[in-house]
Specification:
The structure is a single chain. The chain is α+β, with helices and mostly antiparallel strands and about 350 residues long. It has helices at about 5-20, 25-30, 70-75, 80-90, 120-130, 135-145, 215-220, 240-255, 275-290, 305-310, 325-340, and strands spanning about 35-40, 40-45, 50-55, 55-60, 65, 145-150, 155-160, 165-170, 180, 195, 205-210, 230-235, 265-270, 295. The strands form 3 sheets. A 5-stranded antiparallel sheet has the order 1-2-3-4-5, covered by helices on one side. A 5-stranded mixed sheet has the order 10-12-11-13-14, sandwiched between helices. It has a 4-stranded antiparallel sheet with strand order 6-7-8-9. It is globular, with a radius of gyration of 21 Å.
Amino acid sequence: KSKKTQESNENTKQLKEHARKTDIREIGEAYALTFKKEGKYDRCIEHDSLILKGQSYYWNSKGVKGHGGLSFCIDVLDMDFKEAMSILTQDGFSQYKNDNFSIKEKKTLNYNTQTEMKDSTRAYNYLVNERCLDPKLVRWGFNTGVIAQDKQNNVCFKWLDNENNIVGVDKRGTGRKAFKQIVEGSKQHSGFHIDIIQDKNIGIRNVVITESPIDALSYYDSHRDLKQTRIASLSGLKLETFKQHILDVGKYNLKLGEEPKEYPLESIVLAVDNDEAGKNFVSSIVNTYENDFTIDLPLNSKDWNEQLKKDKAITDGKTLYQKNEIKEQLKEQTHNEKDDREI
């Protein structure tokens, strides 16, 4: 074998080992699972037959057991190998320590705006032609700098703090092979967001939570009546990122002299994917916090980008689905779950 091939194989081996050693509790918590201590074990609250011991897991009701972060993502979180490797090697999770104490090393964001392409045609065409986003919305993203194209033709979605500093980046491939990446050094528990602000003297009144940057843009494209709203991406289903987005909105409003108690949020909209993981995340949020939440999952589609494409597919002048009916069903279902918890 050539030296280059040997180096590549060694690098792959090291990445796999890193993924295996990733703390399975931290992974689970990032995807809306919570655990309670029971002697030498940790039991999952959402799935009480799932228990953890060290880096090993046992899901008795499903007859599943394994060891390490990589297997945990595949067996418990239902990821494929490629998705699990991408998340565990790019998402800043801690490595498991025997004493259950992990130290995170703060890394500088590995992103340089000087490497962005001046010609963003490839990324623009991908977002407009393949993702069906409004050309004006996409141009706004490039013009404001919140979206860019890198030398590998990936779309770069920048995570900005309240002072518009870049604190992280999501990358999405534009080629045939699916590629997702959170750039190394991206700020933990942060994420991509866009603000729809009509009056800069008034704070943010509404927060919409989606799973990805493309879903955030798609949601806005489908809801042009939004006002004083932040649409935020979790880059997955991460409870800590959800909490941080809400805190950041509070800090944004505080800078304008608005006390959170005097100007509470009018709505927190959970607009994650319409799949089992998304619904479990919604249930976890609703059953954990006393706030009133609005549930707005896409209809007959997995995510908001797929829904956007259906929205724009017109037959005899009518859209292909009835939004209000299913929204009321989801709202009633979620409230019933919360009522059952309080009995």
